[in-house]
């Protein structure tokens, strides 16, 4: 019967530190999977946002040319002004028109993957480039989820930034999945541990009873043989 719990004995799961260490590792593994798929979804959304921004600028410049009877200089200025006020989504973006930096509202400019699209605004005959830096390294994102972005919190405190806004818009979303997985896995792990060790205790008692029965049977057999 003890063979059923050979794995438990082999990796010494009866040690609390070992048992909960494995659970925490499992939580980090789940957090990694969550972050990977989350940022893959964000990446697809950000690519769409880039193309959407370029299309909006194309439509705006084209409409301006029609309304101003082909005044390219005026429409170039108007398009640049419009682009400077168009901040994009939560992650922001960088916009270059005719190689001029029009705006850079990117929330994260360092340590994140840069992806961009270059095109042209044919109506006003200038180039346009829209870029984003929204996707962090997976290991870095998991580390921040697990440590509750303590490094970023420290930097915010040093700069005197609004911690409430950072908590609500960034930290909360980063660490919520980790906390949820941690609670769920530890709860399930604790229940499993109770169940496993309860079964082991029952098996130990049954084996002792079997051993005692066998002992008495052997004694009875010895008596019968001697008589």
Characterization of the model:
With 227 residues, this protein is α+β, with helices and mostly antiparallel strands. The protein has helices spanning 6-10, 16-67, 72-85, 138-146, 150-159, 163-226; strands at 94-97, 100-104, 112-121, 126-136. The protein has a 4-stranded antiparallel β-sheet. α2 packs antiparallel against α3 (72-85).
Helix share, percent: 55-70%
% residues in beta strands: 5-15%
Record field, number of beta strands: 4
Extract low-pLDDT stretches: 1-7
Could you spell the SSE succession in H and E letters? HHHEEEEHHH
* Helix-and-strand structural type: alpha+beta
Q: How far is the first residue's CA from the last residue's CA? A: 36 Å
- Give average pLDDT, whole number: 83
Largest pleated sheet: 4 strands, antiparallel
Q: Nearest-angstrom radius of gyration?
A: 32 Å
Return the domain count.
1
What strand line-up does the widest sheet have? Answer: 2-1-4-3
Helical stretch count? 6
Shape type = rod-shaped
């Amino acid at each position: 019967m003890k063979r059923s719990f050979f794995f438990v004995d082999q990796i010494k799961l009866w040690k609390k530190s070992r048992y909960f260490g494995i659970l925490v590792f499992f939580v980090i593994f789940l957090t990694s999977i969550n972050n990977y798929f989350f940022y893959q979804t964000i990446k697809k959304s950000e690519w769409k946002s880039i193309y959407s921004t370029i299309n909006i600028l194309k439509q705006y410049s084209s409409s301006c040319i029609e309304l101003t009877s082909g005044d390219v200089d005026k429409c170039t200025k108007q398009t640049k002004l419009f682009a400077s006020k168009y901040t994009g989504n939560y992650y922001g973006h960088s916009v270059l028109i005719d190689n001029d930096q029009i705006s850079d509202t990117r929330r994260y400019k360092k340590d994140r993957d840069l992806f961009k699209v270059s095109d042209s605004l044919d109506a006003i005959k200038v180039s346009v480039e829209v870029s984003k830096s929204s996707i962090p390294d997976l290991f870095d994102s998991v580390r921040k989820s697990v440590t509750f972005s303590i490094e970023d919190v420290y930097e915010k405190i040093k700069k005197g930034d609004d911690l409430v806004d950072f908590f609500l818009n960034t930290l909360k979303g980063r660490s919520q999945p980790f906390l949820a997985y941690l609670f769920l896995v530890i709860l399930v792990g604790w229940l499993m541990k109770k169940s496993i060790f309860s079964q082991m205790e029952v098996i130990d008692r049954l084996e002792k009873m079997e051993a005692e029965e066998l002992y008495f049977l052997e004694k009875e057999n010895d008596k019968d043989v001697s008589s």
